[in-house]
Amino acid sequence: MNEVLRDWYVGDCAAGVVRWNRILEAHGMSDRLRLPDRKFHRGIGMYSGFHFDPNGVPLCARGSGRSGITTGCRRRPIPSTCSASWTSRCSSPGKFANYIAPPRRGISQQPIDFE
After folding, report:
1. 36 and 51 Cβ atoms separated by less than 8 Å
2. Spatial contact of 57 and 48, defined as CB atoms under 8 Å apart
3. Does this model's pTM top 0.70?
């Protein structure tokens, strides 16, 4: 029954993606939305314990031990737009990247520049 409900949910999501892609096309945008493969990030069912990227490509082979734990795998694909320079732009206390609004106060009423 769970898979039947999941099929309906995926079908509903796919219809929404088709509708949004039509809107993008009508506005002259070349980008398109898509759903991840059904195997991506599964915690239950026949694909649980296996790791796939959003396109459904396996990230690694299943471990050979009795526990069935995968070894030497990335747990999630790393977005291609991330880099070390992106994360190290603002690393000093009290400084914020231009895309983050500074908070009104720091954690536990501390000053914003508290280390």
Report:
1. no
2. no
3. no
Indicate the SS3 state at residue 52: strand
pLDDT of 65: 39
Q: Which of 60-64, 87-91, 104-108 has the highest mean pLDDT?
A: 104-108
pLDDT at 21 over 50: yes
Q: Is the dihedral of CA 35, 40, 45, 46 positive or negative?
A: positive
> For residues 50 and 39, is the Cβ–Cβ distance under 8 A?
yes
User: Average pLDDT for residues 59-79, to the nearest whole number?
Assistant: 50
pLDDT at 68: 42
Query: Closest Cα partner for 53 from 34, 32, 39, 63?
Result: 39
The conformation of residue 78, written as its DSSP 8-state character, comes to: P
CA proximity to 59, closest of 47, 83, 67: 47
Encoded tokens for 30 = 């070349």
CA distances from 84 to 7, 25, 45, 80, 97 (A): 39, 34, 36, 12, 14
